[in-house]
Structures are given as structure tokens and as C-alpha cells.
Amino acid sequence: MHEWDAVVIGGGPAGLMAAGEIARQGHRVALVEAKPSPARKFLMAGKSGLNLTKDEPIGALLAHYGDAEDWLAPMIRAFDAQAVQDWAQGLGQALFTGSTGRVFPTAMKGSPLLRAWLAELDQLGVTRHVGWRWTGWQDGQLSFNTPDGPQRISPRATVLALGGASWARLGSDGAWAAMLASQGVALAPFQPSNAALSVAWSDHMAPHFGAAIKAVGWQAGHLTGRGEATLSARGLEGGGLYALTPALRDGHALYLDLAPDVAVAELTTRLAKPRGKASWANHMRRVLKLGPVKTALLQEFGRPLPQDPAALSRIIKHLPVSHAGLRPLDEAISTAGGVRRDALDDGLMLKALPGTFCAGEMLDWDAPTGGYLLTACFATGRWAGQAAARYLASVTTR
Length: 398
What we know:
The protein is of the alpha+beta class. Helix content is about 35%, strand content about 20%.
């Protein structure tokens, strides 16, 4: 048996943030992580630069949360892009903002920030346990399998920050869903978010595997985007495509604009120029200047290509991308689904389990990459931690 005021289960960004908020109010906090070390997915994200947030007006920032915008708005307004930057700099991390507004540590990795963050939690008196896997409740107590055998804890408040259901090897396996469902918690099914597409390429695409598709536009349903993607043997992946995942999940067709800065009329004019003795393929290459990757995609998805300039121009601007659907759930960068909004009160406390709060990716919200994911994880973790601290204060005075 252990005596703590609060236990935070899950050592990712939301859990770390919640633990700090509760400890600052003088409460005894244990942070419990199933893996041998905390924040493994956070560190993996840091390998590509650790995009902490997006420095843009709050209205534009919030719009990227789609159907969850009004739910998350109070939490993100309380810990917005500027607050994220101030927090990271307060931990001694130098930052820079890229040309698109994305904010990164100058070190371009997550480990220095994580070390400083954990050191701060140590100073606040947070006790950390790794290798402790939560197995649910037993006789009203939190139950764990640990390296030292089964353990039970009876805190007065619990924060669950267990992640979604992708990248199970890093800790987000979604196993918690069955445990919460058994307690009457309303859940939405897990779905991939920020997911790659499976494409059965023809053989002529193989030389282009690993190549980046640059300066293109994407459309699926009502969602549009500009950004790069990468060709792989399995399909298409990349930030330009990830923002369209909600529409692709719903079955909308995907279209690619190979010349987003050139109007159909201008493309038609170029293609209508006399080509002399040049073949149609060489004429296209000379007047369109699409480059080898875009040309290969046009051939892959547009054949047989019409020789009518106007018809071909329309295909170049609205090329249907044939695919076999999203890659498997565990490969997705993040997941939608999880604990539904109506299962929680305004402080992210579970209505079915008073004193138990939820935060981070285990909540049913969806956001593209580009700083939005981490911003909401930080904000919801902070929000749940503050609500848990208020709850502890209220039960202490009863």
C-alpha cells in the first residue's frame, strides 16, 4: 500500500503536465508509467524536430480541431501557442519559429526538454514509477503489475493520460478502453488520424519510392491542404496528406492538384502551343515542367491521358488518386476516438468515476500534425491537473 493524494497514470506530455499542476498545489503525486522510461512517443516525435506548437492567431489555431473546437477551446485558450513557448523557454529550451509558424526547440530533438521537465517534476516532489502497468481496479483500488509484483494504490484523485491506440510499442496500445467501458464510461471507437494511405503502385513507380511530392494541393471532401508527401513502397505519407484523414476515413475520394499555383486556363494555353515534331509526352514535359515525380503520378492515376489541352489541364488540377484506404491503426501518428465528451464534466472528470480525470490523446478529439497535437495534449493535461487539484482541495475540506 502507498499513500499519495493523486496518481497520474501515463508518462506522456499530458500526464507530465497534469502531475506538475497537482504537485504545485502541495499535493503528494505519483506518476506511473508502464514502459521502462516516460514519454517515449514524445521522444520519437522529437527525432523529426519536435514541433511543439503553431505560432498563429488563436482563431486559426482552434479551427484545426474540427468538431472538437468548441470543447477544447477553453483549455487551449488557457495554454495557447504563446504559453507553450513560454513554458518551454522557462525550462531552459531555446526555440525558433519556422517560415510556416511551426515552433521547434533549437536543439531539434525532445530529449533536452524532457530531461529539464522531469527535473522540474523531481523538484516538485513527484514520485515516478516505471514498469508499472495499470490493470484496472480491484476492490476500489488502482491495481498495477510491477517489477516487484502486484501493487494497489488508493489515491483521492486519479488522472488517466494513457494515450490513444497507435504506436503500441511506445506505450499507446488502447488497452485501457475495455477497463473504462466496464465502468460505464462512454467511448467512441478508435480511428486512425494523421495516417498514411495504402496504394498498390504499378511497377513503373518503383524508381520514385522515397521521393518527396512537393508544391501540390490535396482535396478530400470539404478538406483541402498544401504540403509535401512522400512516395513509399506501401503508399503515400506526409503532413500534406495527414490533415485530410478525417475526410478519407469517411470515404471521400482523394484528389491531387499537381499545379496548385497555375490556373486551368494557363495550363490549357501552354498545352495548346504548337509542338512541331515533338511527341506528346515530350511536349507535356517541356511546357508543363512538372518534373519526374509529378509526371509519374499523372501517368499512374490519369492514364489514358487525353491529348485535348483543356481536358488534360482539368486532370492535372484534379487528379483522382486511387488507393486502398488508410494504413492500419497502429501505424497512425495519432488516433481519434476514445473517451467521449459527454462522459466528462467541464474539468475532464469522468462522470461515472468521481475523482478520476482524463487528458491527452485518450480523449475523443482529432487534430492534424504541425504542432496541434502536442498543444492540445499539453493543454488538456494542464486542465485536468488543475481540476484534480481543485477536487483534492474540496475533498480535504469536507
